[in-house]
């Protein structure tokens, strides 16, 4: 009996293990896709959602000077003002009302068309970068000018605030980081790891997280960053991590940025090929750019900053 | 179908063994032959004509074996052999080297060498041709060694094809060997393969020197456990069916010289080249210069066998140079001063695997510069703490791999094999491996492209 002890014990454990494994291999489709992506019929909506080619909200528009001093717009005929230097009370109130209205107009225009400008690395000294493995790549291979970074491979929007920071030498969770310091800027780039969940659920959680960030750091400029695409071939074979789903999520991000007065940044402008996928030459694993491109990424961030 | 897959372990193998072991002795080979064709058919379901190719090759080689044997004239006999070898190697060259198609029939590098060896054995009268088409078909197609070896030459297995014993003890032993192989493949090789993938994802221009060294040590361990693990799984399955396959690895990383290494690594391939290329050319019997030439031929072909890209030729060439240097005197030093020999091999093994691992010469040069930064080129942005990060993730597996590469674990196993706790350890290895496969951590077998 001792001679066959392994055979016997293995067969006994097989009796328990085999049904579980066979269920995994040949179990029903719905069980396999327990955290599936939103309905497949939505793909036609995804395809028409904002893609990397849309550049509104991020392209600096030097031709259109939106920062127009209110006075010049309210100036009627200059001669009139020169002739009547003393304004009546009604006129002053009216002028103030007009100024307030125009300032609101400017702010709204700023919201939809923020002027992005070039900064140097010191801009990030009061910034925090929050994200997943792509942000971790930035932490490790880019120069983020001493910014705080909260990132990790696989980071999810579902347990973000209590997750452990995977940046080397950092131990705090995000909740603590955000409560201990006042940040001037927050760069938030997440969601791709959660594309396996039901999309509506993801969208809701994403918006909740953004709301929480704004609540905890109301004065920080919030940069909502689009998720970077994957390559065409990866997109073609992965049911979750494909560019249709990424674009769908980025559409949510862009709309949310408009709604909340945040800034939408889309790195895909820089890294995409002509088909709206990650350029094959920039990556080895089809999902992350090579280390050397993270420095270019941080250069691009320096070219797309706003100064308030 | 890979051995280290849930489909093989929980579907194919149990069904096959159940049927095979119940079959009466006389039709066991029919069961094995048909089962092997089902196995191969599943493996090539996307290209079913590959199964046809295998069957046609079995028929052609079976016929040529008899034709060669029956030839009376020496000249005609020789031409029949050449024709048969042209058929065998023709397909291999077509699929592997001409770049006409992108997909190769699985196992073609292995079964071609087996059928070619068979024809040469018949020609040199080392064996009579197999009379039974069934036995011959079983020999070529038997699924334990069809896809990735060991390369079994016909004389070694002829007796077993026609007379082999089955027993519960052999099944138990076979399962143990299979389990050890499975653990090597899934728990060690697959884990370590992620380190190499991670380095490629970063880009070699952005890895630090310590990480570069960690990378090639990891690759060396990965390729060893990948292939050795697979060979053990093959041997274990074969043992359950009463076969005893030849040993393919014998602690190669404990070698003190490259000469010694290649008698311990992929032993059946080395034997094949010695039997069917080196010795027929004249071996070392025609003077020193000819011996060197024969070695050059063997190592060029060995390089080419492993891959169609130029780095494999370079790899073969580098090995040839090292072996020549050892042949002209270094070998004696290494064998006398074994500590020096071990240090020498610990350095050379990862360096030679580097040439094997990277197919693009620009990338290969880049990696080399990272290993030896004093040679020149500075890196792109390097994350200074990268080796600490990857050391934390993979350190345990690297250390475990290094320990398992020595003879220690095998000695421990031999001593403890009859104790019950060894059974428990094997069960743990088996189910831990299954768990990893279950959780989706399976990787394709590195040698599958051969």
Sheet/helix structural class of chain B: mainly alpha
Question: Uncertain spans of chain A, ≥5 residues at pLDDT below 50?
Answer: 29-85
Count of DSSP helices of chain A?
13
Q: Average pLDDT value of chain B?
A: 93
A few lines on this structure:
The complex is a heterodimer of chains A (308) and B (450). By secondary structure, chain A is an alpha/beta fold.
Task: Describe the structure in your own words.
The complex is a heterodimer of chains A (308) and B (450). Chain A is an alpha/beta fold and 308 residues long. Chain A has helices at residues 5-26, 29-32, 43-48, 70-74, 78-83, 89-112, 133-141, 174-180, 199-216, 232-237, 243-260, 268-271, 291-303; strands at 127-131, 148-151, 185-189, 221-225, 263-265. Chain A is elongated, with a radius of gyration of 26 Å. Chain B is mainly alpha-helical. The longest helix of chain B is centred in the middle third of the chain and has 35 residues, at 168-202. The interface between A and B is medium-sized, with 31 and 37 residues.
Task: Spell out the key features of this protein.
heterodimer, A: 308 residues, alpha/beta, five-stranded parallel sheet, 5 strands, B: 450 residues, mainly alpha, 0% strand, disordered C terminus
Annotate the secondary structure layout.
The complex is a heterodimer of chains A (308) and B (450).
Chain A: H1 5-26, H2 29-32, H3 43-48, H4 70-74, H5 78-83, H6 89-112, E1 127-131, H7 133-141, E2 148-151, H8 174-180, E3 185-189, H9 199-216, E4 221-225, H10 232-237, H11 243-260, E5 263-265, H12 268-271, H13 291-303
Parallel strand pairs in A: 1-2, 1-3, 3-4, 4-5
Helix pairs in contact in A: 7-13
Chain B: H1 6-22, H2 28-43, H3 49-70, H4 74-96, H5 108-123, H6 133-141, H7 143-146, H8 154-162, H9 168-202, H10 209-240, H11 258-261, H12 267-281, H13 288-306, H14 310-336, H15 338-357, H16 361-371, H17 386-405, H18 408-416, H19 420-438
